[in-house]
Design brief:
The protein has a two-stranded antiparallel ribbon with strand order 1-2. The protein has a two-stranded antiparallel sheet with strand order 3-4. It has 18 helices and four strands. β3 and β4 form a beta hairpin. It folds into three domains: 77 residues, no CATH class; 112 residues, no CATH class; 85 residues, DnaJ domain (Helix Hairpins, Orthogonal Bundle), CATH 1.10.287.110. It is found in: Membrane. This is DnaJ homolog subfamily C member 22. May function as a co-chaperone. Keywords: Membrane, Transmembrane, Transmembrane helix.
């Protein structure tokens, strides 16, 4: 029994060691460059390489502030791929960095990007706060959330790749620097100084090497986290447009979007649509959604049948003989050659084309129905013969 247990433990040990030492699925430099070329502004190549933070920031800034960072990656993608593959060459170079630098050395590009993203997130949070009273409430106290978003932006950039740091250092620096707003009455400079302070503290006190390989998270977990981050980001934009955005009416007056939206919900047009949707749901409850779909297709007139009958001036019960006779009669009366007035010839030509198209549509539909009916009759006859 002991020998068997030892053998089992040995086997399990080999399996565990093989799982620990197993390399991640290998990424392709070619695919990374293709994704960089066709979707790099939105960080598709970073998603492919499991650099989700990097991809999120590319989404927020359209490729590193309108493609500047995206263009700069043309030479760094191979190193990103080696990092994702845990290539021995990359690991050897990384170990040399660890031996020569206890902490990650200063990177001007990363430091500048921390300031820019911190400023972007802080400015976006500032824009999302309602400037005026909303529902008789003053939301200006929410400006104290601005340092939090500044710190979050700086921390996100600082944790890209093989470097990491804690968030609370950035938070302390941001909240310590933010009261400068009471001396500098310009939010632009206040947010910029706050972002600079958070970046300086993170760079000098917080950042360190990520010595272990990044965790390979499942697709569901990655999707959930990325979607949550994107939802928060676009929610801030939505708050900005809803509370502080305006639209211009026909008289040239600017109307806040939230007021325009409320007026729209109270309009007769929206009331009619809401009632129609409610009636459709009630009808579907009794007759099924398939009937709703059939009626929707009929109302859309996807095959042009209803419009064709309208062009020819016929009812939907008209036979093929009636359609042909009406078509020939109209061709004689509206033919462009019969119009002597040159100013009316273009209109007659357009009308003539519409009549021809209507006739072709109805003839095609009628022929298809006749073939379908014949096939049904033949199938019924064959089944009757088999029964006999």
């Amino acid at each position: 029994m002991v020998k068997n247990n030892n053998k089992t433990m040995a086997k399990n040990g080999k399996v565990m060691n093989s799982e620990v030492n197993a390399l991640p699925p290998q990424k392709s430099v070619f695919i990374a460059y293709v994704l960089w070329l066709f979707g790099g502004v939105f960080g598709l190549h970073h998603l492919y390489l499991h650099r989700d933070r990097h991809a999120f920031l590319w989404w927020c800034s359209l490729g590193g502030y309108f493609g500047i960072g995206w263009l700069g990656e043309i030479f760094t993608i191979p190193s990103y791929v080696r990092d994702a593959n845990e290539d021995p060459r990359f690991i050897e170079e990384f170990i040399k960095k660890l031996q020569s630098h206890k902490r990650p050395p200063y990177s001007g590009k990363r430091f500048l990007f921390m300031i820019m993203i911190g400023y972007l997130f802080g400015q976006l949070a500032n824009m999302a706060i309602p400037n005026d009273l909303y529902m008789a409430m003053d939301f200006s106290f929410l400006h104290w959330l601005i340092p939090f978003f500044v710190a979050l932006g700086v921390w996100t950039v600082g944790n890209i790749g093989r470097e990491r740091g804690v968030l609370w250092h950035c938070l302390l620096a941001a909240f310590a620097a933010y009261p400068i707003r009471y001396f500098i009455y310009d939010e632009t400079y206040t947010i910029l100084i706050t972002s600079l302070a958070a970046a300086l503290v993170f760079d000098h006190a917080s950042k360190e090497w990520l010595r272990t390989p990044p965790k390979r998270r499942g697709i569901c977990e990655r999707f959930f986290k990325f979607s949550t981050a994107m939802f928060i980001y676009f929610s801030l934009w939505g708050c900005f447009f809803y509370f502080n955005g305006t639209i211009t009416d026909e008289n040239g007056n600017e109307v806040p979007i939230h007021e325009a939206f409320q007026n729209f919900l109270a309009s007769a047009w929206w009331t009619d649509i809401k009632q129609a949707l409610k009636d459709m749901y009630t009808y579907a409850q009794h007759h099924g959604w398939y009937e709703i779909w059939k009626e929707l297709l009929e109302s859309m007139d996807v095959d042009g049948e209803r419009n064709a009958y309208k062009v020819l001036g016929l009812s939907a019960t008209a036979s093929q003989t009636e359609i042909t006779a009406t078509y020939r009669k109209l061709c004689k009366t509206i033919h462009p050659d019969t119009v002597k007035d040159e100013s009316q010839r273009a209109t007659a030509q357009q009308r003539f084309i519409e009549v021809q198209q209507a006739y072709e549509i109805l003839s095609k539909i009628k022929s298809a129905r006749i073939r379908k009916n014949k096939k049904v009759v033949n199938d019924d006859n064959e089944s009757d013969t088999i029964v006999l």
